[in-house]
Amino acid sequence: MSVLTVHLGEYSYDILIESGILSSLGQRCAAVGLVGHVAVITNPTVAALYGDVVHSSLVAAGNMVTIITIPDGEEFKNAATLNSVYDGLIEAGLGRNSYVVALGGGVVGDLAGFAAATYLRGIPFVQVPTTLLAQVDSSVGGKTAIDHPRGKNLIGAFYQPQLVLIDVDTLATLPEREFRAGMAEVVKYGVALDYDFFEYLEQKVKTILAMERECLVEVIHRCCALKAQVVEIDEKESGLRAVLNYGHTLGHALETLAGYRKLVHGEAVAMGMALAVRISIAKGYCSETDGSRIVELIKDFGLSVTPPAVERTSLLDALLKDKKTRNGAINFICNKGIGNYVEEKLLPEQLLVLSRLEV
Ligand SMILES: NC(=O)c1ccc[n+]([C@@H]2O[C@H](COP(=O)([O-])OP(=O)(O)OC[C@H]3O[C@@H](n4cnc5c(N)ncnc54)[C@H](O)[C@@H]3O)[C@@H](O)[C@H]2O)c1
Ligand SMILES: [Zn+2]
C-alpha cells in the first residue's frame, strides 16, 4: 500500500492509496482512533455503488453507522443541503465522540468536511474520495466549503481530515468524462511543479487511459505528494498555494460562462492551461517546444484545448470577480518551461490579448 503523511504538526494525517482498500475502511479508521458513532455522508449515485461495502466495513470494526445522503450535483453544495446534513447528525444523536466519513467526489467531500468542521464546533472526519479529481486534489489540503448564490466556495473553513483513504478501484465506475476531466488536474501538477512527473505522464498515457491499477496508484500518489508539499508550506493559502491555481484563472471564467455542465471543471482547466501556455510563451517563460509538449499531453488525455466562444465583456467581468484579483490585477501563474512556475501580475485585458482569446 502506498502511504503518504501530510505533515501539519498536530493536524498531520495519512493518505492511504491502494486498490481494494475500501473494505478495510473500518479498520483503518480504528487505527487512527476512530470508532464509535459514524455518519457516512454520501450521495445516491455513490451510495448505490459503495454504500454497502463501506457500511459493512464500519460495522465490522465496531461502529454504529448512520448514512446521510445528499442529492447528487454541484447545485446542491449549498446551505440548504448543509442544513439537512446538520438535521441528520442531530437526529441520529451524533455526539462529540462521533465522526464523519465523506464518501464521494469533491462535492460530497467539501460539504461533509464543512459539516464536520462546524458541527459541535468540529468533529473528526475521514475523506474517502471516489472521483479522480477528489483523489488528486480536493480531498487533500483541508479546504472545505459550500457555495453561495453569489459565488462558488464562498462559505468554508480550513479543516484537516484525520485520514484520507483512496481506493483506486472506485475509478472503474466513474463516467469516462469525469475521469478525463480529473486528468487535467493531474497534468497541472506535472506542468507547474514536477518535470519528472510530466515525463512519466507522457510515457504512461495508454496505461493510464487503460486504468491500470498500479499506474493509477503511482499517479495519485505523486499528485497527493506534490499537493501535500505545497500545503505543508502554505496551509492557509497565503502565497505558495496559488501555484495550484495554474490553468484555473481563465479556466474558471470559461467554466462559469460556458453555461451549466457544458464544461465540467477539469475540461475548463484543460483549456485554461493551454491558454496559460500561450501567455507563458508570450512572456518569455516557455519555449514553443515545451508549450507544444504540454498541449499535446492535454490532448492525449482526450481533453479539448479549444475554448468555447464567449463574449469579451462577460469574460472580463468573470475575471474581475475572481477572488484572487487585487486592484484589478490578477496574480497569474505562468509555467516556466515544464515543471516550474512563476507569478505575473496581469490585467484581465492583458490576459485576453496574450492568450489570443482576443486578437
Ligand atoms: N477542497 C478543495 O481543495 C477542492 C479542490 C478542487 C475542487 N473542489 C470541489 O470539488 C467539486 C468537484 O468535485 P468532483 O469533480 O469530484 O465532482 P462531483 O463530486 O460532483 O462528482 C462527479 C460525479 O461523479 C459521481 N461519482 C463520484 N464517484 C463516483 C464513482 N466512483 N463512480 C461513479 N460515479 C461517481 C458523482 O455522484 C457526481 O455525479 C467542486 O465542488 C469543487 O469546488 C474542491
Ligand atoms: Zn481544479
Question: Key features?
Answer:
7-stranded mixed β-sheet, 359 residues, 3-stranded antiparallel β-sheet, 19% strand, single chain, binds zinc ion, globular
List the helices and strands and how they pair.
Layout: E1 2-6, E2 13-18, H1 25-31, E3 37-42, H2 44-60, E4 64-69, H3 79-91, E5 99-104, H4 106-118, E6 125-129, H5 132-138, E7 143-148, E8 151-158, E9 163-167, H6 176-193, H7 195-209, H8 213-233, H9 248-258, H10 265-282, H11 288-300, H12 312-321, E10 325-326, E11 329-335, E12 341-346, H13 348-354
Parallel strand pairs: 2-9, 3-4, 3-5, 5-6, 6-9
Antiparallel strand pairs: 1-2, 7-8, 10-11, 11-12
The protein binds nicotinamide-adenine-dinucleotide and zinc ion.
Question: How is this structure best described in words?
Answer:
The chain has 359 residues and is α/β, with parallel strands linked by helices. Helices cover 47% and strands 19% of the residues. The chain contains 13 helices and twelve strands. It has helices at residues 25-31, 44-60, 79-91, 106-118, 132-138, 176-193, 195-209, 213-233, 248-258, 265-282, 288-300, 312-321, 348-354, and strands spanning 2-6, 13-18, 37-42, 64-69, 99-104, 125-129, 143-148, 151-158, 163-167, 325-326, 329-335, 341-346. The longest helix is centred in the middle third of the chain and has 21 residues, at 213-233. It is globular, with a radius of gyration of 20 Å. The N and C termini lie far apart (51 Å). Nicotinamide-adenine-dinucleotide (NAD) binds at residues 43, 45-46, 49, 72, 74, 77, 104-108, 110, 130-131, 133-134, 137-138, 141, 143, 152-153, 170, 173-174, 178, 265.
